[in-house]
Amino acid sequence: MREEIIVSGRNNPLIDPQLHVWHWEIPTYLFLGGLAAGLMFFAALYYLRGKENDYRTAVKLAPMIAPIALALGLVALFLDLHHKLYFWRLYTTIRLESPMSWGAWTLMVVTPVSIIWSALHIKELFPNWDWKFDFAKELIDFFQKKKKVLAWIMLISSAILGIYTGILFSAFNARPLWNTSIMGPLFLASGLSAGAAVVIWMSKDHAERKRFAQLDLMIIGIELFLIIHMFMGFLASTQVQIDAVNLFLGGPYTAQFWGFVVILGMIVPAILEGLELKGYKIPVAIPVVLVLFGSIMLRFIISNAGQASRWLY
Amino acid sequence: MRYAMAIDTKKCVGCSDCVVACQTENDVPIGHCRDWVVEVMDGTYPELEMELRSERCNHCENSPCVRCCPTGASHYSDGGIVLVTKNECIGCSACITSCPYDARYVHPDGYVDKCTFCLHRVKKGMQPACVAVCPTKCMYFGDLDDPRSEVSEVLKKRKYKTLIPEAGTKPQLYFLI
């Protein structure tokens, strides 16, 4: 039998025997960023459609989680850097070819927008809230008048943020499992699904919960379609891509991917949400927690499996 | 000017002198390496072939590491040599994941490090440490744009290959076969 045995004298930490430079920080950030993107996207969308009072949780309350998620995500990103004291270099350069540079600048837009949006609605959550300083009140008044512009910026920038969480991976040609354009839309859909799930969880309004359950069902359908599309694309591609996708089709990540992401994170919550829409009584926390779990697992598994996939030589 | 290196896999004996020379010359931290030797055993018994390759950063003409670097720390220097400016590197590891050759590592001081083709020596008219020390003289270094350079001459005469050409990175490390 023809065999090839490769023995490498290289033994660099985090690189050998298998690449593992990105640990929990990156997938955690990608989940929190995706969740924030989802929350902000729906808030902007329904505000612009004039449904501010129909979907109060989605437009006013749920987006308050976005700045918290973004801040925690940025802490995770910071922790991931090995040369932490130089992090500000991200903001002294604009590198159009680097997805990470795009991400840094997108966050520069998204984070303040999420804070302003929350500030505009904070009085609804805490009626006794007092801004204390006049300039803060003036700023709030200013943004209140420009709310439509702010909503448009939020809609577009949150979509870019959601797509970026996937493009960060897909830009790396050296990791065949990541190198597919499906990653952007898949991660955006996963972020939107997580955002919709949080709205369902927080909302007390039956009509709003019903609308977001319908939305979530639709997004889960899109996610499943994108996953099938991704597998078909890989299997019709070169040997390195076939080997990469085999990590999920009989390889070491098979049980995790299909069990945690597809079955527990998508199919089971979709069935539960479907039953709920048909009038069955199902505790809302169950599908919501499953969707969030699936969304986190998707990031972790794609991050780890991607680093395990490589070119042959 | 386009610096390149050719390594004769027929002459290499896998002694790892190049690895030690590099570690000494460039103060490579203990437990890390900028270059390394790979042994490939291929074939069906008893007809087996072994290839020895001294590998390092391929100083690709189309470097994904340079493209994906968010701060510009990874850049092309003189003659297309790919370098990392340590005070601009934030250690995000994007360049590490983008390199199909896994030629980079995180230096214990936090920045990303890799082979520089010993540019500091090349600027003085010397050869990279690995080339200078090789006991079998199996490495050739020079300017590909100069038809009379050692590396151009040897690539004209011999058959050669590059690693993972299908990745489209246009590597400048040639292996004579």
Automatic annotation (TrEMBL), chain A:
Compartments where found: Cell membrane
Transmembrane regions: 29-49, 61-82, 102-122, 149-170, 182-203, 215-235, 255-272, 284-302
Main location: membrane
Membrane-protein topology: Multi-pass membrane protein
Keywords carried by this UniProt record: Cell membrane, Membrane, Transmembrane, Transmembrane helix
Cited Pfam families: NrfD (PF03916)
Gene Ontology, cellular component aspect: plasma membrane
Keyword Transmembrane helix: yes
Matches recorded under PANTHER family: PROTEIN NRFD (PTHR34856:SF2)
Similarity comment: family membership: Belongs to the NrfD family.
Name by which UniProt lists this protein: Nitrite reductase
From TrEMBL, chain B:
PROSITE patterns the record matches: 4FE4S_FER_1, 4FE4S_FER_2
Organism: Labilibaculum antarcticum
InterPro entries: 4Fe4S_Fe-S-bd, 4Fe4S_Fe_S_CS, ET_IronSulfur_Cluster-Binding
Organism domain of life: Bacteria
Gene Ontology molecular-function annotations: 4 iron, 4 sulfur cluster binding; metal ion binding
Keywords noted in UniProt: 4Fe-4S, Iron, Iron-sulfur, Metal-binding
Pfam families membership: Fer4_11
Protein name: Tetrathionate reductase
Segments forming domain 4Fe-4S ferredoxin-type: 3-32, 48-79, 80-109
